[in-house]
Amino acid sequence: GFRSPYMWGPVFYTPLLALSSLALALFRSQVTEILFIATYALGVIEGLFGAYKHFGGVKSHIGGFTLRNFIQGPPAVLPIIYAALALFGLVLYYWDEINPLSKPYIG
Q: Among 42, 62, 74, 79, fewest CB within 10 Å belongs to which?
């Protein structure tokens, strides 16, 4: 079960990420762009906070950071993947600005 209120974060927040992506895809405006950036930035923060909590959960088991505790404890890699996917969404949003090859060459 979910013993900590922090465990409900991804359950409620992930649909908001999906809705902000859908809103950006269907109704591109300044408001949806700001909403997208804000929700995905918070998704990165939520994933990093989740990694902190999950690694703390593994550490709290007897023996600390052992392979057995990583297998039986909270999935420590899952929030890192969550943060990476949110960061990847932001990178894709800003891709044309950060990728020099996406700009036309004017010689």
A: 62
> Structure pTM?
0.84
- Chain centre to alpha carbon of residue 29: 23
Rounded-to-integer distance, Cα 84 and Cα 89, Å: 9
Cα–Cα distance for residue pair 36/24, rounded to 1 Å? 7
Among 41, 50, 49, 52, which residue's Cα sits nearest to residue 93? 41
Which amino acid belongs to residue 91? V
Count CB neighbours of 90 within 10 A: 15
Over residues 69-101, the pLDDT tens digits come to: 999 989 999 999 999 999 999 999 998 777 777
CA distance 76 to 32: 32
